[in-house]
Every structure is written in C-alpha cells, then in structure tokens.
Amino acid sequence: MAQKKRIALVAHDNCKAELIDWVGLHWPVLAAHDLTSTGTTGTLIEQLVSEKQGRAPGNLLRLKSGPLGGDQQLGALIAEEKIDAIFFFWDPMHAQPHDVDVKALLRICVLYNVVTACNRATADFIIASPLFSGNYDRKVPDFSGYTGRLLAT
Fold first, then answer.
1. How far apart are CA 6 and CA 8, in angstroms?
2. Is the CB of residue 97 less than 8 Å from the CB of residue 66?
3. Is residue 101 a contact partner of residue 66, using CB atoms and an 8 Å limit?
4. Which of 17, 47, 34, 19 is CA-nearest to residue 117?
5. pTM of this prediction?
6. Is 137 among the residues known to form the active site?
7. In terms of Cα–Cα distance, which of 28, 54, 153, 42 is closest to 87?
8. Which of 16, 66, 93, 139 has the most CB atoms at less than 10 Å from its CB?
9. How far from 44 is each of 39, 62, 116, CA to CA, in Å?
10. What is the DSSP letter of 35?
11. d(CA 105, CA 107)
C-alpha cells in the first residue's frame, strides 16, 4: 500500500452528517489521497470541499448511489485491489433496502484485507495511525488454492 492511499467514503442516510463532519475535520489529510464515494455521499463531500476551497475536489470519484449499484461498483474496485481503505459509516439501527449489498461489501472488505472503519471512533484511530501516513505492506490473501480446487472439479 503506497503512501498515497485509495480511500472509499460511504455512509447510510442517517450517518451522512456524521461522515461529512468527519471528512471536514480530516480534509487536510484526505485531500492528499485518491477518494472514491457512493452517489449522495460523494455529492455532499463535493459540496463541503467546494465551500472550504471554492472548488470541487479533483481527487474524488463518485460511483452510483449504494442502492442503485454503488455498493457493487465499490466491491468490484476492492476485488480489483483498487481500494486500500474504506470508511463506511453504516446505520445499525435501521434496516436498509439493500442490506444484502451492504453485507456483501463488508464481506469483500474482510476477504481482501482492506482497512475498514464502520464508525467514527475506528475512523479516528485509523487516520491518526502512523501506518496511515506512510507505506504499508498489506498482506493480500492468496486465493490460488481455492481457485485451483474449483478448476480441478
């Protein structure tokens, strides 16, 4: 994992204000990295940064809204090893119409050993870690035994 990280920023509706506040506090750090976000959250980040800097962030890729396929787009980026960390403030109090997608996204984060924060406290610890600001040798799982076994059947 290079010093310049590829970071995903995602939040459920009831958590968007919390994530946007967190992004605002940590924008000086986040601005140095490549960012990806799902639809509405990305729009809110663009608005926040435009207010702070007078222009939209040039380092933000906006995907579709989560329920419209953004979660799957992000999962594909993780599977392609194009995301190093995800800050996903999800709502544990309300069922989401796309709960299956959320579970699949979190599963793929664990599967590919992606740094994952699901709440503000964890996000604060991660972004303050000395490992976050430098290079990090993240162990990416080797699935050749699994895929080889499938080919043998």
1. 7
2. no
3. yes
4. 19
5. 0.90
6. no
7. 42
8. 66
9. 9, 11, 21
10. E
11. 5
Tell me the pLDDT tens digit for each residue of 55-86: 888 899 999 998 899 999 999 999 999 999 99
Instruction: Name the residue type at position 35.
Output: L
**Residue at token pair 């920023």:** 9
pLDDT of residue 97: 65
pLDDT at 150: 62
Angle at 7 between CA 5 and CA 13, to 5 degrees: 165
- What one-character DSSP code corresponds to residue 3? S
Q: Which of 13, 21, 71, 91 is catalytic?
A: 71
CB burial of residue 35 (10 Å; 0-12, 13-18, 19+): buried
3-state secondary structure 57-125: CCCEEECCCHHHCHHHHHHHHHHCCCCCEEEEECCCCCCCCCHHHHHHHHHHHHHCCCEEECCHHHHHH
Q: Which residues pair with 9 in a beta bridge?
A: 37, 87
